[in-house]
Design brief:
The chain has 130 residues and is mainly alpha-helical. It has one domain: Up-down Bundle (de novo design (two linked rop proteins)), CATH 1.20.1440.60. Helix 2 packs antiparallel against helix 3, helix 3 packs antiparallel against helix 4 and helix 4 packs antiparallel against helix 5.
């Protein structure tokens, strides 16, 4: 993680970058999935949450190279859908009791904040396209 932090500091001096936040979220989701027990259900949830929890970072990177405003909105909507799917997986993991709420609270909060950011960004992009 130290090497990544060095890269992050060299990348830009601007405010906290959404792409960096999504990457950090993806890493935390991977860590969570790897800590799940080895049951059939938890392996399935782990695979699912890794797919949905890492997808927003990748799709957001694609959105930055969108070919049009409509393409940008479409890719941002994919990010939003994946974040909502991740939130449901986190809730299932919580309700199943794989981890205590205190362990998942920060991830649930970050997931909800990212959803809010994408909802607002999509609304703004749609308004700007008019």
């Amino acid at each position: 993680m130290i090497e990544y932090n060095k890269f992050m500091n060299q990348k830009s001096n601007s405010k906290y970058d959404l792409e960096d936040r999504l990457i950090e979220f993806a890493v935390r989701i991977i860590d969570l999935a790897e800590a799940l027990p080895g049951t059939v259900a938890s392996k399935n949830l782990g695979s699912q949450i890794v797919r949905s929890g890492t997808s927003p970072a990748l799709n957001y990177a694609e959105a930055q190279s969108a070919e049009s405003k409509n393409d940008f909105v479409h890719k941002m909507k994919i990010c939003l859908k994946e974040l909502r799917e991740t939130l449901v997986c986190l809730k299932i993991i919580l309700l199943k009791g794989y981890f205590k709420e205190t362990k998942l609270a920060a991830l649930l909060k970050e997931n909800s904040e990212l959803i809010s950011i994408f909802v607002k960004s999509i609304q703004t992009a749609k308004n700007n396209a008019k």
